């Protein structure tokens, strides 16, 4: 029973000391001593503060975990919706107003990057095809993924050739600029120097 009374006394001291912690610390710094009751009260206040901080950190961690899980679900739903859109896309210009006898004009174009890599992209659904893609598999970051568009590089290239869209490319650097190879002060030719 004496332990229960002692705990209640410590809590009471802590409650009164919590509001007066600064004065307690100032007094202790001046005198250089602190009584056992004051120390117990100060310790109880600090432990209560640590408990509140730990509770806030736990709540924040749980909130971040829940937010991360929701973002993952949203990302998965977005990916599924994008794949379904690409499955249903006919990759043809004209949309709903397209007439049956209208000439087929694919809504795709060929793009060449600065390193020479090529990709064919549908302007309607965002589907992309690369040279290693087949009708069965897409090459995504070196992994073979089932091809939901059922169109490989060869067929995509045919669509790009049939399209009225012009190929695009990124600006390419290096090599000879306007027929002149730049030279250093020592007369050394630098063929890949960017000017």
Q: What is this entry, summarized?
A:
By secondary structure, the protein is an alpha+beta fold. The protein contains 4 helices and 6 strands, in the order αααβββββαβ. It has 2 domains: 2-86; 104-169, no CATH class.
| Distance from first to last alpha carbon | 88 Å
Helix content: 40-55%
Average of pLDDT = 82
Largest sheet: 4 strands, mixed
Q: Total domains, how many?
A: 2
**Low-pLDDT stretches:** none
Number of helices: 4
The count of strands amounts to 6
Read across the widest sheet, the strand sequence of neighbours is 3-2-1-6
What is the subunit arrangement here? single chain
* Rg over CA atoms: 35 Å
Structural class: alpha+beta
Task: Specify the overall morphology.
Answer: elongated
Order of helices and strands: HHHEEEEEHE
Could you explain the architecture of this structure?
- The protein has helices at 2-19, 21-31, 36-88, 153-162; strands at 108-112, 118-122, 128-129, 137-140, 143-146, 168-169.
- It is of the alpha+beta class and 195 residues long.
- The strands form two sheets. Strands 3-2-1-6 form a four-stranded mixed beta sheet, covered by helices on one side. A two-stranded antiparallel ribbon has the order 4-5.
- The chain is elongated and about 95 Å long.
């Amino acid at each position: 029973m004496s332990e229960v009374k002692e705990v209640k006394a410590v809590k009471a001291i802590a409650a009164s000391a919590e509001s007066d912690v600064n004065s307690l610390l100032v007094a202790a710094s001046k005198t250089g001593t602190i009584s056992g009751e004051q120390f117990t009260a100060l310790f109880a206040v600090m432990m209560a503060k640590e408990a509140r901080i730990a509770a806030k950190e736990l709540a924040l961690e749980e909130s971040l975990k829940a937010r991360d899980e929701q973002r993952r679900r949203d990302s998965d739903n977005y990916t599924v919706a994008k794949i379904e859109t690409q499955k249903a896309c006919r990759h043809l210009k004209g949309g709903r107003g397209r007439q049956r006898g209208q000439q087929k004009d694919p809504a795709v174009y060929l793009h060449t990057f600065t390193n020479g890599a090529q990709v064919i992209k549908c302007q309607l659904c965002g589907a992309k095809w690369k040279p290693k893609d087949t009708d069965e598999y897409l090459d995504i970051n070196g992994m073979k993924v089932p091809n939901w568009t059922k169109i490989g590089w060869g067929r995509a290239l045919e669509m790009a050739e049939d399209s009225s869209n012009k190929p695009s490319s990124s600006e390419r650097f290096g090599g000879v600029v306007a027929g002149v190879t730049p030279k250093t002060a020592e007369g050394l030719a630098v063929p890949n120097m960017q000017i």
